[in-house]
Amino acid sequence: MLNRDYLERIKRDSGSYEAGRRETIRLSDDIRTVSKRAIFAMHRDDTATADRLLAEALKGIVSVHAKSQDGLQLTEEGSFRAALEEYVEARLYRDVLDGKELGPVNVADVEVPPNIFLGGLCDMVGELQRRQVRLATDGDIDGVKAMRDLAEELVGALLEMDLTGYLRNKFDQVKNSFRRSEEILYELSVRRT
C-alpha cells in the first residue's frame, strides 16, 4: 500500500524548493550585476554609488539567507555562490580603497565560506591591477607601488595554500594579474628615467 500523505509532503516540499530556487537564481543575477556595477563605480572613484550598490547587493544576499532558513538550502545553489563570490570581490576591493585589513566577510551574520572568500579575493587582485593602470595614467607611482605590493602579499599568502580545482584556476589568474602589475610598475619606472 502506498503512503499518499508521505508522497504529498514530498511533492509539496519539492514545489517549495523549486519556487525558492527560481527566486534564488533571479536574486543571484541581481546580486552579481549590482556587485559588478559597484566595482565599476569604485574604478571611477564614485564610492557613494559603490556603497549604495553594495548595500543593495547585501539586501539580496540577506533575502536568500532568510529563505534558506526554511530548510531549503538555497545558499548552496551555484548561481547564489557565484553571486556571493562577486559580492566578496567588490567588498574586498572597497576595503582596499578604504585602507582596511582584508579579512572575513560576513553577510546575514554568517561568515562567507572560505572557498567563496578565496575566490573573491583572487578576483579582487585583477581589480588591483586595473587600479594600477588608472594610477599610472595619473602619474601616481606611490599608488602603483602600493597596489603591486598588496598583490605581491596576496600571491605570497595564496602560494602557502595547496589550492586545487576551481581555486587553482583562480590562483593562476592571480599570478597573471601580478605579473602584469609588475610590468606596469616597470614601464612606469623606465619612462621616468
TrEMBL record:
It comes from the Bacteria. Pfam families: Translin. GO terms for molecular function: sequence-specific DNA binding. InterPro entries: Translin_fam, Translin_sf. This is Translin. It comes from Candidatus Uhrbacteria bacterium CG_4_10_14_0_8_um_filter_58_22.
